[in-house]
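Most newcomers find our protein records easier to grasp once they have seen one. Read left to right, the backbone structure tokens trace the chain's path through space. Nothing more is needed to start thinking about how sequence determines fold. An example says more than a description, so a record of this kind follows:
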Amino acid sequence: MRILIIISAMCVAQGASAQEWAGWRGGQQGVVLKDQAPARWPAAVTQQWRLPVGEGYSSPVASGGLVFVHSRNDPEEVVTAVDAASGKVKWRKTYPAPYEKNQYATKMMKGPNSTPLVAEGRLYTLGATGILTAWKTADGALLWRNDYSDSVTMSKLFCGTSASPIMDEGSLIVNVGSDQHGGRILALDPATGKERWKWSGEGPGYATPTAVTVDGIRQIITLTGGSVVGVDSKTGEGLWTIPFKDEWEENIVTPIWTGQQLIVSGTRLGTMAYDLHHEGDKWRAERGWHNTDVPMYMSSPVLLSGTLYGFSNKKRGHLFALDTKTGEVKWASEGRDGDNACVLLTPTNVVYLTSAGSLRIVAPNPSKYEEVRRLDVAESQTWCVPILLPDGMILRDRDGLMRIRFGP
């Protein structure tokens, strides 16, 4: 079976450059390109600016010298465009998005949770209640809005809509719904928001979809509340389903396609690999290895040359490297590294930003754990994927957006 990894059309069209960070994990599975990455790691950092923006777990994105962040000032959701150099607000827009938080999510902020997407002069935001909006990046003008909030309840999907929008082959892909109303993966016209196709099924999990080509068939792969599904990217036809049931519907980790296997992970189910087989018009998924020692909860891993670098919620949080062919853990940190970590891959290092505001720079060594540098970059919690720059980074803490410079 011939298998190809296809980079999303959005990434190609955008042409990533310094300060271009188009979507969830940069729109490139957490890979930071050479001209975006620091040439060296300093012994200290300096805060250049910090701007209060409101609460939320939505990661910032950047394009054309602007940083965009989606946040909440209850009962409204807020979209802010900030000049990356100065930290000054270029424009800010608000819209009503009231809801009552699930009683079991008392420690969680109300979101938003989905990371925005930038493409061709438009910014797409998807709020916690399922309000999808297209904005003009230059001035924040409202281009169109689709309100899916009537299909989103917080009964089991405690934190609301969390899957980030992606662009694939000219279509905007979103995953909306809930356990009570069922889920929908939608392909939309990016210019108008009009529906091109719809897949209907089980209510969504929290994971952001990924788009790959397997044996010549382009497909959208994501997690529902109780399964992993593959959907034809041209028609929305369901191709295959893998049962993946979490008792709290907490399927959060973005699936990773290695070119040979599909790797998925859940906090109670562990990390496992599946082979996808295509015979005629039939698909089947067969499980390969299964590792229960490094389950991933909220943190999505990165892949380099057959090694998966990730963050597991076991041992009160620990970093690890795993052989994708065998599922064997090659190394792991001692533990107590935090509740979560955002993982990025630069040309020279694996970068972990922990929820405690600690930046860990690790050598991409599949044989042993080598910490190159450790930096404290924020005073409050950091749950969102940062934007790496050649001379620093832009990151979000509990209620603010900041830019730090590497060095004194």
Remarks:
- Residues 3-406 form a domain with the Methylamine Dehydrogenase; Chain H fold (CATH 2.130.10.10).
